[in-house]
Amino acid sequence: MRNPVVCTPLRAERIAVGRRPGAAQVVRTGFGPRRSRAAAHRIAAGGARPVLVAGVAGALDARLRPGDLVVADEVRGDGVEPVMVPSAVPLAAALRRVGLRVHVGPVFSSPSVVDGDRRSELARTGALAVDMESAWLADAAAGGPFAVVRAVVDTPDAPLYRPSTLVHGLRALRSLRRAAPALDDWLAATAPRTVELAEPRSFCAGVERAIDVVDRALDRYGAPVYVRRQIVHNAHVVRGLERRGAVFVQEVEEIPRGAVAVLAAHGVAPAVRAQARGRDLSVIDATCPLVAKVHSEVRRYSERGDTVFLIGHADHEEVEGTVGEAPQQVVVVEDVAAARSVQPRDAQHVAYAMQTTLAADEAEEIALVLRDRFPELAGPRRDDICYATTNRQRAVRAVAQKADLVLVVGSPNSSNSLRLVEVAGREGTPAHLVDDVGELDLRWLAGVRRVGVTAGASAPDHLVDEVVSCLSGLGPVTVTTATTGTEDVSFTLPKEVS
């Protein structure tokens, strides 16, 4: 792939963007479609290259103000095929980091100045801004990475032919000047890459079951269906269920008496179930069966008088629910240091259990310390770490050993997703958690040629597809899959929705 080019139609735009460091060339391409076509033909000669169009535009959406930036996720135009821009969202995020007000959406290219009824007509199509070059400059990339950043001059409330246009134009050019570091981030991130997908990744059987419980409850009982806490730790899943009519609350007391209530996959303490009965709720339990198994272990140990060491994170919902089975007998052990100092009531009557979403190697290290200190320590016949957690950690480890960078798709409150980042990091590979493609930092990609991608057990796989699509918008991508195992586990649904 050849060296990148920044296309600026007007001289003032070229001055605002300035000379870019590195190999990027800034070219004044000229005003309007005819000059843009000619410039695109010249730039494209010799093959694909990254092309970024930077300039001013008119706003179509009344919410935009002079000086705002529009990053095109699609470029449309009269008589040309639409061009999708997969890298728009992280480019917009880079621009916001330098303090600019940024919008992402379609940009329309017109062969003439747009105003009046035509402006309103284009606004109804969903386009955010209009210019006179971008659609014709897209050919300059010759199939390589392409992006468009336009600074707003005129708006529906302040059309182009007004005395204020000069002030608004200066404001737009200042925004372009401030945008320069983010444009450099995009240019530096463009390159051919190999993307290796970890397999298994994304939803596990327990997460699929929990989401299915809420979906079926909505189908059977109608909205609203109340859910205590997030059904699984993923913001996208929660928002999707909210659109269907699920109402997420923190505590049972927030649920109207007699309503349908779902208990989330992470499990709850017996006291929560008692509160639900006290409010005459129709309860559907979506607790993951593997979490329910840990609850059962803790009850069994505590009933025989053991002090139960629960290896896990004290502030995690799963641990809070498990501790609630026997609050006076369960001691949370968060790390090796705690394992070395914890003191039970009776060293002859001790047992341990684990949070299901821990990093398997760290959890085993803590358990080993406890076993060494307490020879009578009882434990589960099989470790409590969830099969899906173990499988995903093994897969990300294999990917991290070959990658320059690992991206883990998952929400920041997802324990198993955070553990994937840690596991990859322990292989010596930089690793980052992203809730979605909007959190992909272009600076991470500079100089990176091999990217490993995985997703936590609560993250939808379509978010992984969006990350891969975005990377393909930054250069040619070869996608491979590293498979370290397969999963065929399924769990039955609660009788209330089966």
Quick synopsis:
The protein has 498 residues and is α/β, with parallel strands linked by helices.
Q: Which terms summarize this structure?
A:
five-stranded mixed barrel, Rossmann fold, 4Fe-4S, iron, EC 1.17.7.4, five-stranded parallel beta sheet, 498 residues, Cobalt-precorrin-4 Transmethylase, domain 1, elongated, 22% strand, isoprene biosynthesis
CATH architecture of the largest domain: 3-Layer(aba) Sandwich
Q: How many structural domains are formed by the residues?
A: 4
Work out the helix count: 16
**Cα end-to-end separation:** 54 Å
Name of the CATH superfamily of the largest domain: Nucleoside phosphorylase domain
Q: Please report which band the strand proportion falls in: under 5%, 5-15%, 15-25%, 25-35%, 35-45% or over 45%.
A: 15-25%
User: Ranges with pLDDT <50 over ≥5 residues?
Assistant: none
Number of distinct beta strands: 20
Largest sheet properties? 5 strands, mixed, barrel
- Biggest sheet strand line-up: 3-7-6-4-8
Reported by name, the CATH topology of the largest domain is Rossmann fold
Mean model confidence by pLDDT: 96
As a whole number of angstroms, the C-alpha radius of gyration is 28 Å
Into which percent range does the helicity of residues fall?
25-40%
Approximate shape: elongated
Structural class: alpha/beta
What is the class of the largest domain in the CATH system?
Alpha Beta
